[in-house]
Here is the input.
Amino acid sequence: MAGRWMRPRRLALITTFSAVSYAIASSSAHDSASANPLEFSITAEQGLVRSSRAIYTFAANSIDYKYSLRGLDYKSDEYLEIRSMVHSRAAKRILKLCEANKGFYIKAGQFVASLQHLPKEYTSILSALQDQALPCAFEVIEVVLKEEFGWDVMDMFEEFDKQPIAAASIAQVHRARLKNNQEVAVKIQYPGLQQQFQIDIATMNILSHAVAWLFPDYQFQWIIPEFEKTSLKELDFEEEGHNAERTARFFERNKYVKIPKIFWDKSSHRVLTMEFVHGCKIDDVEVLRTAGIDPQKVARVLVEIFAQMIFVHGCVHGDPHPGNILVHGQTGRFQIVLLDHGLYRELEESFRIDFCRLWKALVLGDTLEAQRVGERLGAGKFFKFLPIIFMGRTMESTSGLGERMSDEERRKLRDEMRLLTFGDVSQFMEGLPRDLLIVLRTDGLLRSIISKLGAQPWMRLLVNAKHAVSGLSHRNSYGTGARRASGVAVKKPQFEYLNLQLRLELLEMTYKLKDLYGSFLQLLGRLRKRLPQWLKGLNGYMVL
Here is the structure.
């Protein structure tokens, strides 16, 4: 009976969505109809096609989940196996949708892929979208420059390479040279994005609420407003320029950090002209080694940069994937170049302090304090998973900092995780403050980079802990907003601060000595293998 009732319910829902999607496309396109009637008809048709693809994907995934898992015990091995297969099929449909609709769908897919605590099938399959952007023809991009400045390209620049050097979901970058011979990179937004954004967000909102209606345990509506908020910021290139300048002020005394200079007379809401900086992608280990740069040192500097942003300044770059971070320099001397400052999060001061306290408790093994802070951060009954997320171990683990848990500990954790439903994951993530979600996203991207650079796992933990302790000794008096460019340090009791720093320095020294001892044993092992050959050669020489 229930199955028969659900079919007309879904049919009515999909029919309604089709009508609504056409209304969304038509009303959004109507805003530009007076300027160009031809543009209106094309945009309305494209909007309807894009929305229809999304509705089809939603319907296919809904039916797959509902019927594939029906009647199965969610604690059984069969349920877990089939659920993983459904996750994969659903993620592949979403990937196909993003590739077809492009634009903000690709950006939305990238956003979901970066949420490392969703099912791994989604994050791994959708990670393919990181390199999916295709550039526009120069003739299309040139229109944006003329609309923004009223000049021809060659009136603005001495040279301008019409072939883009990089392309993303909302813009592409061209290399150019100013009249004074300054080499620059020009980031130009694709035309028509604002209107396309309205259509896509409206469709995504409707579908997210439909998922919540059909699957009450899956409450992920919060993802769309969060994505909308971050995307609107990224569409404003002037805000991106101000973010870059603020970050440059944060690190003006740090010789390892380079933020390209912004040229405001050649910049606007849709065009950003900045200093061109040569360098390689931060995870290109072979190029780093060829240039005489130690990848592990690069990894440590990178972690220190973002730890300072999060724990001390409370303002963090939210999209540190390898394409947005370059390494500039050679023969041991290098700078980390931070690009694409469109996605930033200004952390609430109360969250910044609590996050500092959480890291201090995690590294020093203070379970009660970690639980208190975890509950304040909204983790609730799922607080015990925070140490696993950030440190890869439980608070009760007997393994060392940055080391793998024992087989028995991992088995116990695996059995516990098997009992979690998709609804539990939804409840956990919905309860967390949005500040923590962007920090989790950033942390996940950084961990991927430093792993490729060969960094020891304990390094990230101790660097974060040191900056957390440092962050607790500061109170940022500048509030929130674009004015937040510097902090006034109000010292906590010096004894507590110095005591914690000393404990962390000793802990780091212990791990360095342990690594050194391990390297010594490896060297000794190699020498022992070669010793018989050396002795044989020596005996032959003595006989002669």
Q: What stands out?
A: The two ends are 98 Å apart (CA to CA). Residues 158 and 181 are 7 Å apart (CA to CA). The first helix runs from residue 2 to 30. Residues 1-42, 476-493 have pLDDT under 50 and may be disordered.
